[in-house]
Amino acid sequence: MFLHTRKLLVGLLIGLLIVTLTGCGEPSGVKTGAESDSAKSEAQSKPEENTKKVAVNKEFSVNGLKITIGEVQVEKERILVGMTIKNETSDKLTFYPDQGSAVVGSMQLDANMFMTEGDVSGDIHPGVEKSGVVVFTTPEGKTLTPEEVTSIALHLGDVFNEKSFEAKPFDTTLSLE
Predict the structure, then answer these.
(1) What angle do CA 46, 152, 55 make, to 5 degrees?
(2) How far is CA 42 from CA 29, 38, 154, in A?
(3) CA 16: distance to chain centroid?
(4) Do residues 28 and 73 lie in contact, with contact meaning Cβ atoms separated by under 8 Å?
(5) pLDDT of 1 above 60
(6) Run of H or E including 154
(7) pTM over 0.70, yes/no
(8) What does the pLDDT look like over 136-154, one tens digit per residue?
(9) What sign does the CA torsion over 70, 73, 74, 76 have?
(10) Which helix (H) or strand (E) element contains residue 95?
(11) pLDDT by residue (tens digit) across 37-81?
């Protein structure tokens, strides 16, 4: 009995440590397209060396959900996509972009929901706006050359309307030139 309790306690402590460390670090500074982004400092918006940051500022409408892509930042081992979403219907919508993927050339980068900044997933009630940065990581052992990435294809999953049971996919290709 003592051994079982000890294993459970160790498991809980490790889980708590992982959750705590996941939240560590500074925000990326990638703009989401929300109006409050303009208040961010210039120092935070300067990309690091070997990083490509592109202001996209494109709006899409998928099944009543307005999706604004603010900035895209390409790094050696990840791509960060800043976005704001707004439910423009009178129905509850569901969307999980932090479970989607990005494709660069022949490489697929999957979203890492634990690295996502802000809140852009789940149920979005009528009139609600959410903003955040979705992080897509390269497969193990692979890297990107940021300055050579000229476009990315985003496959962010379906926007589901709970009332009509209609689902429409959000797939788009963004130019980064």
Answers:
(1) 30
(2) 9, 9, 27
(3) 23
(4) yes
(5) no
(6) strand 151-161
(7) yes
(8) 999 999 999 999 999 999 9
(9) negative
(10) strand 93-95
(11) 444 434 344 556 789 999 999 999 999 999 999 999 999 999 999
In this prediction, residue 159 carries a pLDDT of 98
Q: In whole angstroms, give the CA distance from residue 33 to residue 133.
A: 10
Structural tokens at position 81: 């996509």
CA atoms of 36 and 138, how far apart (whole Å): 30
In angstroms, the Cα distances linking 30 to 4, 33, 65, 121, 163 are 45, 9, 21, 18, 34
Tell me which residue has tokens 């999957």.
Answer: 110
Core vs surface per residue 56-90: b (16+ CB within 10 A) or e:
beeebebbbbebbbbbbbbbeebbbbbbbbbbebe
Tokens at residue 29, please?
A: 């500074």
CA distance 80 to 53: 9
Task: Count other C-beta atoms under 10 Å from residue 147's C-beta.
Answer: 10
Q: Are 84 and 71 in contact (CB under 8 A)?
A: no
Q: Which tokens is 8 given?
A: 């459970």
What's the pLDDT score for residue 122? Answer: 96
Measured CA to CA in angstroms, residue 163 lies from 89, 116, 158 at distances of: 11, 28, 15
H/E element, 45:
helix 42-45
Helices and strands of the chain, counted as H and E runs: 2, 11
Between the CA of residue 154 and those of 101, 134, 147, what are the distances in Å? 6, 11, 19
